Batch of 2 targets.
Target 1
Amino acid sequence: MSTDQPTVLIVGSGAIGSFYGAILHRAGASVSVVSRSDYDVVSERGYRISSPLGDLSFKPAQVLRSVDECTTPPDFLVLSVKVFDDLDRAELIRPAVGPNTAIVLIQNGIEIEPPIAAALPSNPLVSALAFIAVSRVGTGDVEHKAYGRLVLGDYPSGAGEACKRFGDLLRAGGVNATVTEQVVRERWLKAVWNAPLNPLAVLGNGADTQIMLETEGGEALARALMQEVCDVAAAAGHPLPPESVEQNISGTLKMPAYRNSMALDWLNDRPLELEAILGNVVREAQRVNVPVPHLQTVYTATKILLADREQRKRGG
Amino acid sequence: MSTDQPTVLIVGSGAIGSFYGAILHRAGASVSVVSRSDYDVVSERGYRISSPLGDLSFKPAQVLRSVDECTTPPDFLVLSVKVFDDLDRAELIRPAVGPNTAIVLIQNGIEIEPPIAAALPSNPLVSALAFIAVSRVGTGDVEHKAYGRLVLGDYPSGAGEACKRFGDLLRAGGVNATVTEQVVRERWLKAVWNAPLNPLAVLGNGADTQIMLETEGGEALARALMQEVCDVAAAAGHPLPPESVEQNISGTLKMPAYRNSMALDWLNDRPLELEAILGNVVREAQRVNVPVPHLQTVYTATKILLADREQRKRGG
């Protein structure tokens, strides 16, 4: 790793990628991006990013049309594409990964690191969870609404030099970054909410949190689903605090009605991160032999809904 | 009960009601109907009913705008409205029920008889299940596509004179009618398919049987849901044959892809018989203390979906 200005390549320059790119730019890093769809606009005038932190607009050091165009491996390769089964993320980034490149995943879900760790075993692998409300509002235009905290750690555990340095950069850029030695456990903590309530909102045709929890039986169902996530986490070696379910329920009840990201993906006819968010939890449950009938039902019903959508698109 | 021409009043003259009205008319009964929405057309020219059995078109003896207009209680009052929580079916029919009127329910669901039995305890109460494919295709126009068999018996058990006579009329009119002494058990048998696959199709936005069973995990989910229905039935005193689940699955796999009635109700923005078809199964499970996590999840998710639809209609 170079000791002077750190270099960063953002792969997946949607809302999340361009926001954290801006933060790293603000911290003094040389930030390049891979952007195929927004290439022309971003090459010419960079990203426009409005934020409660101030104007975060920036021009990347380089804009690449594809990862193959990367000639000098970066110190940090930030991968922030959505996680879909039909995308081989390791092969996507491999052309830009040098021997000293630290790979930073800013992605949702459970067990999303193993394919990268297996394919690129000698690189530092930092796994990060974003707690943020940010949207792409147009070509090269991003609106950061609230939050921005990252929790990050090495996969599968620990927090090495690259991880700490990346955390320092984020803080220098103005966001809260918490380095953890147990990032897998942090992913399970986040999954307590995400795994149940993202797909349940999709089954509800984009139902918001208030509809989900206030419909008769909805809160009890949410608790049962969340408890199953906790049971799987514990059996997988990551026991969560006993109050996790209660905190997630009471926290959600206190929030204004909120339509989550998977619900928005559904309503906008985009692919869903169903496997990363819920499918991997169900598979982990099978591996550790924990029954998850509620999660299994939500998972399969959502797959049926997606299969129906595909059939309609094919004109069936 | 009169010994000459039997009199019938059909309350709920949709596709099911008018079809069986035609059958009873063909058997020689004097068939009157209550029809508010189709009053003008049906008064003038009766029902036009196409059927593989031949032309079943008929003119009712009387067409009433409401049950209150009934001056002479019929021998048989056939109730074939859909079963919704906000409709008091006993109060609906009470004005036409005389001391000797046999009440015949041709309706879907589990535990749909108790409110009628409680409100009108001294009348014979015949509970009937229709196995039929029939649709209303226009005002006073009905298309009978296939099947037509009824299974009927007295509620809660037995098969008295009125029940047998009604079965005889149906057979005389040309449909298969099986009189049972255990009609509640027959309802549970039908619920093995209906309770799981009707609402699951709704969660799948109208998914057909092929999509439901052939999506990865779909057949296993259907089996789990069906097994829960069998477990509840057994605990409620109605043990079903051990091969029930298997027969329902293999029978459905052999059928062409089929979109069930609740899926069609959903797609056509009509109310769903969710409580009669599934809600009452879940409540019976609670009463007999049988865990039904898969059914509970489908039930609550469907209620969330309906709550979301209601909120959208209110402009929320």
Target 2
Amino acid sequence: MPLLLDAARAPSLNALLAATDTTGLEWQVRLTAGAESPVIRGLGTLASAGRHELSFLTNPKYHGQLAGTHAGAVILTPDADRALDQQVEQEGKPAPAFARVVCNNPYLLYARVAQWFDRARRGGADYGVHPTAVVAPDAVLGDKVIIGPHCVIEAGARIGSGTVLGPGCVIGAGSAIGADGLLHARVTLYPGVTVGARAILHSGVVLGADGFGLAPDPTLGAGAWTKIPQLGGVTVGDDVEIGANTTVDRGALDDTVIGNGVKLDNQIMVAHNVRIGDNTAIAACVGIAGSTTVGQRCTIGGAAMLSGHLVLTDDVHVSGGTAITANVMKSGRYTGVYPFADHADWQRNAAVIQQLGLLRKRIRALERSE
Amino acid sequence: MPLLLDAARAPSLNALLAATDTTGLEWQVRLTAGAESPVIRGLGTLASAGRHELSFLTNPKYHGQLAGTHAGAVILTPDADRALDQQVEQEGKPAPAFARVVCNNPYLLYARVAQWFDRARRGGADYGVHPTAVVAPDAVLGDKVIIGPHCVIEAGARIGSGTVLGPGCVIGAGSAIGADGLLHARVTLYPGVTVGARAILHSGVVLGADGFGLAPDPTLGAGAWTKIPQLGGVTVGDDVEIGANTTVDRGALDDTVIGNGVKLDNQIMVAHNVRIGDNTAIAACVGIAGSTTVGQRCTIGGAAMLSGHLVLTDDVHVSGGTAITANVMKSGRYTGVYPFADHADWQRNAAVIQQLGLLRKRIRALERSE
Amino acid sequence: MPLLLDAARAPSLNALLAATDTTGLEWQVRLTAGAESPVIRGLGTLASAGRHELSFLTNPKYHGQLAGTHAGAVILTPDADRALDQQVEQEGKPAPAFARVVCNNPYLLYARVAQWFDRARRGGADYGVHPTAVVAPDAVLGDKVIIGPHCVIEAGARIGSGTVLGPGCVIGAGSAIGADGLLHARVTLYPGVTVGARAILHSGVVLGADGFGLAPDPTLGAGAWTKIPQLGGVTVGDDVEIGANTTVDRGALDDTVIGNGVKLDNQIMVAHNVRIGDNTAIAACVGIAGSTTVGQRCTIGGAAMLSGHLVLTDDVHVSGGTAITANVMKSGRYTGVYPFADHADWQRNAAVIQQLGLLRKRIRALERSE
């Protein structure tokens, strides 16, 4: 990837780590004897990083890439550090030139350093309300907010201090966003939606559209439906990130609830009156039908679907593509995806699927006749 | 949920029912002896409603909740009403304090009352065109329309009387929306799209994007595609609701057609030249491939997919997550979802799936050898 | 469908074909003796076209429709042309009245003629920047661009000459679009996105939202996640079309890459660091998880899903609804969709699925006891 910072603005490795939030991490820098702390202008993989980039090794199976990397510095575990020393000793070759950052949790330290770069490359914020934005007179804007071009903030809406709205966001009447949030371009909050602090909402997110509530109404014709107005709202906790084009519907009577620390990827559908527990992470293209409750610390793989009115307990892990059609009251991993195959093989096996009941009968008959 | 109306604006139960459209319903209010008709400020479930809220009982299995509800009034069936009387008599306890609304169809009456509240809480409309909207000189706007901030109405477009466009809607050249429609923020109609009366279109809906029409064009390179322009449009009937981020593509030559009374949930994909019959309801995340025809009064469960060039007759009900890959010419319910299991169990069973043809042979061999 | 052009602007068949790009095609017009080249005002199917419309026959199984069509002209293969002659001769009836366009590739010629009509009906472009658009002073706009109402072009962004932006598009800081592109209403490019020439991006497309990168961070609480900033970008080649509400996430460190000539349908999700090879076409509702590489000239059917960190070689064809959960290193067609059935049949067979391991054991026991 391109370098993130100009040489003039880039810190030394030691300065970078001093500026990074390393709460909860143990780390130390090991420079090659006589070497200076390298200037770090960006981050890269072991395979692609150059001499002004910091890289990291988290998975032991990539240990072999250390020998060939051009990275200026590498974050690695104490184990990997020791293994590298032993290897150098055994092979009698000079140690790799990169500076080592030995850390008990390289992946987390990498995340923290990346967060520093992410802030650094954004540069100074330009607080204020763009003149093309339409802000209701009684909307309440915190200090240091940024309201982008063509935003619409309706009556009584509240935007917490330090929160940034990209171009074209719409905040419905009476809705509220907490402090230090980041709404990318074209996020829509219907009225009656409450979002906590430090939210990250991506483009195309829609919070609070009507749940799919219909009652059969024979007075409108055979098979016709009348709308059940969705009078609840949406409540989203703190530290929630929601991916592009994901939709969370408002509740029928009570609210749809997204807990603290929940992470939703792109193009997810959360139906009315769903409840998602704290720190649950859901990958892209998942659909959760109405009134289902997902516990805390769950992970749901991409394109999984959850039927309505179910309960999933805490610490449930659903594999991608799996349809969960019944309650899951025991923590663990659950899977239900049809195995793919070469098309001709699939045809042969799929044909048998539709005779499985019969096949079982035939086995039973054979067993009886023994 | 929070109360919907201030005490000052809230009606008595009797006034509320008089103001509600109860066409086709039989109902009567039963107050406890000497009690006044309670003031109703909102709606709630039996479990959550308070004394100024109206609740309802539709499913007999929740009958037991009647005893403990704090609701000021409850809609219930004549059967439930009688059962409650008997229960009170047998147990010798005082009757529950709530007013009863005895009705032959509680769910429909609840829907109608909710519709009244939904209108009441919205308050008076503020007709007119927002000054930031861009409206072509030859666009035709009906009376009492509301065109929100940053809307764009292109040349020759027509908006029916009473129709409301939320912020940021785009109505393409020559497209038309009927009367009394409600387009939430950021709905896009391409040119050549016609929508009937009383439409409800949610945020992020896109009607009339190009269908996925490609022809192999070897002159552009091996395996290259050229675009087949999509020259048809989209025709949507009356009383249609379309959920957030749902897309309906325009036809290649003829139109894509959505019938009257069709209800589409969020994140649905309707491909070019699909036809959906009247009063069919489709849950979220469904994909319907090109040129497939779905009959009237069908229901399609969430995350189902329909292959292209199929016909589904009337009154077909597809379970969630099911892939429909062949015509369905007989009404009824169809399902095809792989059953999920604990991951280890799944691994064991999925491995056998890929040997099913072989397994059948082995059974046959055993049968022959008997 | 309605006629595309007024009679006054419509060309004769010969003029139309002369104006159409027929590179790489062999074709000739056969008029009925004495007939003039018909005026062509639009295109239609054999069943619906009228006398001022051009139709086409590509699939021999519809040959029978030639006898009854009202089309003014029909594109057909030399084989179909000969077969029609023989049929006329055998039946002794007069030849159909339509003009014939005999061509070695009718579908491609139809695509090219449709492209001509598509340009013709759009009429003259109205170059320029709409006064409501917000364009950064240092953005670079090519000549003959159209920037629609309420667009936002951020600092340093570049728009190639001849490119059109519909209403409400947002082009992030430093992003670039090549020449002759068409962005429909409400397309969003985050910063750091590069799109090649002749792109067609449909409404609701989001390129460059953050990939779903999370690291467990126990310092934030049990099971809590911290964000891994997504510092890479998105690179999209030339001649790419992307359907409505499709999202392509930016890379974590390196870019997410969409090759030349790639065609993506609606509501597709392309996760971070995915790479899609040239001329691959992907139908709607597909999800591709992070770091997966798809080869050249692949086709992926609707609602398929690809797990992360996989490799699919060139010329792989995945059937709709299939979950690809392992590398595919051999070209060919792959399928894995559970066959649907009448609900009661499904229940019976699905129950057996969960006993397949057991069933296999029972067969083994029977085999042993023989």
